Amino acid sequence: MSKEAMAILTRRALNGLLLSFVCAMLGHGQSPAALLTQTNDQTSDAPNLEMTVKTVGGEYCVGDNDLDILLLKLRLTFTNKGKEPLILFKGSSLIDTIKISRNVADALAQRYEADISQTQLTAGAKQCYRGAVPNKCFVILAPRGSYEVDTKVRILVVRGDVRKIGGAVMSGDHALQVNVSTWHETDKLAKNLRARWRRSGTLWSQPLTSAPIRFSVSKQHQLLKECP
Prior knowledge:
By secondary structure, this protein is an alpha+beta fold. The protein contains 5 helices and 12 strands. A hairpin with a 4-residue loop joins β1 and β2 (67-80). Residues 13-31 and 33-44 have low confidence and may be disordered.
């Protein structure tokens, strides 16, 4: 990643299936999301949480030099694919990694145009972990139940495609994957809460990665006066 791109991200950020099997399944007309669902269904007796992502809007703002920032609005849907209730921390909407590829095939092959880590800050969460049952900081998902939340990611784009810049993407179609750390505290605390809240469900604390989704970057775009 170039120094220009790293500088912008630093300033703005603070606020197994084998490939051959996947490609074979894609050849039979199955989507990446369908493949993930099949994998989850095979282990439905165990706690199992699926995250799907879709784009619901976007806008652009000015970066530095030849860079703009695409503020891409995403809707994350968490679905309990198991047979027992799951307890999910509502802060799971914080995305910590963004991976961008030229297309879905490249994403499945782990060929990335940009692999970006985002700094996420959490504070004042101690009050969330008190009590004999989960409080409003958590949502309890019944089997097949879902929880939706909207969030945004910042993607560096090259203004007018003037030149290649590391960590930034050109205009056109791309594929996006995101990773969320559903638990931001220690494993010890998760274990203690899991035992304390077992009558309400199982606390989920594993990270989740979405299947790749398509999105587009426009070459000519209207810019906000300031990046929020």
